[in-house]
Design a protein that fits this description.
4-stranded mixed β-sheet
């Protein structure tokens, strides 16, 4: 009986010592404009800044990663802000419910408020491109020239 228990324990030890290689989902933001932009991402639950990066044209930054079961955009709880290089806020994306009136939404660049007039949404999976590199799934959100247009201008065009 002791021999069997030892064999079982040794087998468990050996199995546990070999980790299975799991898939990693990597989430990136890429600047596809000719301007330099700043991406600032913080955890929605207040745990701190994840990313504060200046991106030149064509540059990317990792904002999140997840190992294990395949991930989706909706698992991220980040508040993401897009700024021009001079500090002008252009977009603020969050998954949290924020109740702004139109004027507050413009001042705070709250992109979800303007979804109805075609403003791109960070948490819309259709806005992300997915590629694969080995065991890595790379999810990329591209900052496009239309993201650099102030929300007030977009609102004026749709009225």
């Amino acid at each position: 009986m002791r021999y069997r228990v030892r064999c079982l324990l040794c087998s468990l030890f050996l199995l546990c010592s070999f980790q299975c290689e799991q898939e990693v989902d990597r989430f990136e933001v890429t600047n596809m404009t000719s301007q330099t932009v700043v991406i600032h991402a913080v955890e929605s639950e207040g745990a701190g800044t994840i990313v504060n990066a200046k991106l030149g044209s064509g540059e990317s930054v990792k904002i999140y990663s997840h190992q294990g079961a395949p991930a989706r955009i909706y698992i991220m709880y980040l508040d993401v802000s897009l700024y021009m290089d001079d500090g002008t806020l252009l977009r603020y994306w969050t998954r949290n419910d924020v109740h702004y009136d139109e004027d507050e939404a413009i001042v705070n660049c709250f992109a979800p408020y303007f979804k109805w007039c075609g403003v791109r949404q960070f948490y819309d999976e259709r806005e992300w491109r997915i590629s694969k590199s080995g065991k890595n799934n790379i999810h990329t959100f591209s900052i496009l020239p239309e993201d650099l247009v102030p929300l007030s201008e977009i609102l004026e065009r749709t009225r």
